[in-house]
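To the team - adenosine-5'-diphosphate complex, inputs and output below.
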Amino acid sequence: MIFGTQFTNELNRITLNFPDKREKEYRDYYFIRSFKTTRVAYLILAILYAFFGYLDSIVAKEYFQLFITIRIIVVLVLLSVFAYSYSGKFKDYWQTLIFISYFFAAGGIIVMLVVMPNVVIYSSGLILVFLAGSVLVKLRFFASSVASSIVILIYILVAVIWEIDVTIIVSNSFFFIGANLIGMFAAYRTEIFNRQNFNLYQQIAKKNVEIEEANKNLEEKVEERTKLLNFRNKELKAEVKHRAIVEKELIAAKEKAEESDKLKSAFLANMSHEIRTPMNGILGFANLLREAENEEELDEFIDTIINSGEHLLNLINDIIDLSKIEAGILKIEKTKFELNRLTKEVFDMFSVESNVVNKHLEFSFRNGLADEESLVYTDRMRLKQIMINLVNNACKYTDQGSIEFYYEIKDDSLVFVVKDTGIGISEEAQKYIFDRFMQASIGRTSGRESTGLGLAITKTYLNLMGGNISVKSKLNKGSEFSFMLPGVKINSEVLAND
Ligand code: ADP
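Output:
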């Protein structure tokens, strides 16, 4: 910001004008700040000018007529300017009008002063005009200085022409110049002060604009940052959510792994026990062979050894199957064969099975197709194993009553059902019987050779072949296992083509 001399240096030394477009702006500003004062000043001056006519009536009786006429003219001029100050155009002409009216007022007094040179009140009157010009009516410094100087010159000129006493002219001029200098100085200071004010005001306004602009930029930046932060926040929230899900999944996976580990350990313990039982049977009865007292006892021992051996073999087969499944190397090998022949094999196998024979179970089966139509295409060995597992369970877990199995063909799918009137399965146990290593968790079925592997293997085979298995059962009433294998039926056209 420019203060003091630095600022003053910027202005024209004589006119006090700004060197640039600020001059126009300053004049507008000066008008806005001054025109009301000027208007009031005109009113006051018109009244004063008129009232001084009273003095004329005392000191200048012989010229009263002339003086009053002058005063009326001047007052009319002053009032006209006053009235015009209400017009919208006043702004364009106000300084010129003040300048002109200044000459009217001063001119009037000069006439009176020349006519009545010895009367002090008129020289004082002229001094009042000077002061009014420079202080009251807001004539700018330069204009008021020029005007008052011209007025003094006019006075001197007129006084000389009128042959007024030189001493009076000189002494009056001294006073006038003195008063004029004081007025000029006041006007000069006031105008510099005004211009300085204006300059400050302008710079503040400029700074305000800059601040507003900066504020706006700041607001925009804040808004931008807020948006960015919100976006990041959303991303973080999503990340946190994602991590929570991953964490949950990891915990679940860990729990599953731990559970699976526990089950495997339990399964191993179980299996060791299961293997030891038939092994003990084999070794025990093998030792007893030497001590057999008769042929009958020998046969009995041999039967027990064979049974235990078969059981052990089944168990080992199951374990091998299961490890193949676990390792993912189990292969399905499809062939064409007659389904009725397979069901017959299964039936024949179990009709002489010890459970069926010893417990006098009613054992029957039904085929869904005629022999010649029963050609199917699937993995025969696995299918047989599945059927054997289910029928074997039925035999194992049925103490009295009947066992029957049958199949139907529905839309090329094979539906196989095994029904028994055995011990049944509780609803709770039904949830687990198809799971691997679950034997440990559902408790052992007392008195029956049990590994808990058969159904798990069965289900895995069926799933591998695209089928599924389900059970309906009631405790002490019996069970019904049924499985479905899709797309196994070969229709007669295919047969014909083959
Ligand atoms: P295992 O028979 O060697 O125990 P499975 O996987 O074949 O193993 O059967 C799992 C369990 O399901 C059996 O231990 C038994 O409790 C039950 N279960 C299976 N079939 C039958 C059935 N027909 N009647 C009653 N319970 C059965």
